[in-house]
Amino acid sequence: MRIGFPGTDASWFENPKSSSGAWIKYLSVAVVDNESATFGDITGDGVRELLYTSKGYLGWAAPDKADPNKPWIFHRISTHGNWERFTHGLGYGDVSGDRRFDFLERGGWWEQPASLTGDPVWTFHPFPFASDPTQSDAGGAQMYAYDVDGDGHKDLVSGKRWWAHGPNMDPEPNAEAVLYAWILKRTSRQPPKFQPIRIDNNSGSGTQLTVGDFTGDGHPDILIGNKKGGFRKHFYISPSPFAAVLGVDHEAQKYAVSHAWFSLPYALMVLRGSATSRWPD
Known about the structure:
Elements: E1 2-3, E2 8-14, E3 24-40, E4 49-54, E5 57-62, E6 73-76, E7 90-93, E8 102-105, E9 108-111, E10 123-126, E11 144-146, E12 155-159, E13 179-185, E14 193-200, E15 208-212, E16 221-225, E17 230-239, E18 242-246, E19 250-253, E20 269-272
């Protein structure tokens, strides 16, 4: 499967098995917008779908089980919006706690209805994923859902993409490269809310962001690559006062930023979920 440049096609290539020659190409989707198109089982049927935006709509597509060679059908879940080919920020996860996956994007989240028959429009819940949407700490270039504080609910991790297109092309390109966790809070008979917690102000997020226990110590790690370079930090969520508490800050490597923005090496950042453990030297 290959997802092309934003605004172009997504196609899959059939392995010729014992035959020689080029793999056969099959068109899946003619227009895939959004820079964060991804695969996920949004419908809960055990099969991953392609999640993306197309021509101003948010939705998903899946192959026809009877004939997987045919173009996939796009199922709109939103009204028409301002999503275009280079839109950033897209994810999915069970925000409402009803065991159905919801769509997440920079401006809020779309709640999946009880039935998908007839492709209904999902309910939109606006939420600015920033401590102050009027300031430069707004996140959303890449978003990841993960249980950061260990309460059993998926939280969100995102941040500012520093020098996304170089030093002059974006709003406030030299502003603080902040990284945030938005902690999901549920109250009985109330809509879910996210509480922003600032983790760092000199790292931000990149175009690829992933979270998991990569060290096997039972604490989540956040891995990021961006033009700021490579770092390794650790933190934990303090319940009182509720905040991200940084431990010892270990800078692993910081690449020079004098190179052209498109040639900088892919970097790695690890933020540890513990205030007592150290990254092994």
